[in-house]
Design brief:
The chain is of the alpha+beta class. It is built from 13 helices and six strands. It has a four-stranded mixed sheet with strand order 4-3-5-6, sandwiched between helices.
Length: 326
């Protein structure tokens, strides 16, 4: 019976240790033989000194060496030294926009202090005055008197110039066709789940009715296409009814979403990067798209995916939506 209890304890530790080992403030005590054995089963090896390792866990303690061989057990993302320019760069953004999140995440992961200005969704004047049209993100670099659009161009710029810290911090894009295929397969599903929720989540760009109406008027939910949706005869009332109907479909959409999240788990390399090359442009794109899924009540993220989301959120200083999911 004693041995059976020990095996049960090992099983529980194996289940929990993969997404948590070496992940920021998630602490693992290595004082017991059960814990040591569980780590070995999980695919890692550990050396523990004779002295007790206390409640602070393995991170930051001298004499503790951890080698995790399982692909799901990775060191958490470490932030480089903070970069504070005399004049802070400014990101003009919408909180829900994945392209805007790319820039915020890139700056955050490189630990570059910056200002974020959330524009109202119906504000045409501000972006047009900055860059000539209503787009986001917009990146303003005051000391260069430069204003840029195109999210990946912005991320590549901040990774190529020494003023923003170490260059080449991000691995290059690897053309993950499997991840691209996954994104394509869930495009309509996520539009049905995300777009109505943006109106309910009290995001900064949607604080006023005009902003919400502007977004709904320009963003159809399936099965409608944009020309049909934006036609004057379709009408705002019909658009709002379609949005409400999409929200009401959530219970029947959740099984499809959660099945897709099971498939995604197989595609993510580790809890700190989606590709084997390490933290890079693949993550800037994928993480920024996955963030909105955390707004969906009932979304069941698999362990590695959840750790990946949390780790990059912490390192990039871009919050997830778990606290406002609906």
């Amino acid at each position: 019976r004693e041995r059976e209890r020990e095996r049960q304890a090992e099983g529980l530790l194996v289940d929990s240790i993969r997404p948590r080992l070496l992940s920021f403030d998630r602490r693992v005590s290595l004082t017991s033989s059960v814990a040591r054995r569980a780590i070995m089963i999980a695919g890692g090896s550990v050396k523990v000194p004779a002295a007790r390792v206390g409640s602070q866990g393995i991170a930051g303690r001298r004499g503790v060496s951890v080698r995790a061989r399982a692909s799901a057990v990775r060191a958490a993302v470490e932030r480089p030294p903070k970069v504070v320019l005399d004049e802070l760069p400014i990101v003009y953004a919408y909180d829900h926009c994945p392209y805007c999140v790319r820039v915020r995440l890139g700056l955050g992961l490189k630990n570059v202090k910056h200002e974020v200005v959330f524009m109202a969704n119906d504000d045409v004047k501000k972006p047009t005055g900055l860059i000539g049209k209503k787009i986001a993100p917009i990146f303003e670099i005051p000391d260069e008197k430069l204003i840029m659009g195109e999210s990946m161009d912005i991320v590549k710029k901040i990774d190529a110039e020494e003023k923003y810290g170490s260059t080449g911090f991000f691995a290059g894009a690897t053309d993950r066709k499997d991840i691209k295929a996954w994104m394509k397969s869930v495009k309509d599903l996520l539009r049905l789940l995300h777009r109505p929720r943006y109106m309910s989540a009290s995001l900064p760009e949607f604080q006023q009715r005009d902003s919400r109406d502007y977004f709904v008027g320009g963003h159809p939910v399936p099965p409608y296409d944009k020309p049909e949706w934006k036609a004057e005869e379709f009408g705002q009332e019909a658009r709002e009814e379609a949005d409400a109907a999409a929200m009401a479909k959530t219970p029947e959409l959740l099984p499809e979403l959660n099945a897709a999240l099971v498939e995604l788990e197989k595609l993510i390399y580790s809890d700190s990067s989606c590709s084997e090359v390490g933290l890079g442009l693949d993550d800037i794109d994928l993480w920024s798209r996955l963030r909105s899924v955390t707004l969906v009540e009932g979304a069941e993220f698999q362990p590695k995916t959840l750790a990946y989301l949390n780790n990059l959120s912490e390192a990039g200083d871009v919050p997830l939506y778990f606290g406002m999911k609906c």
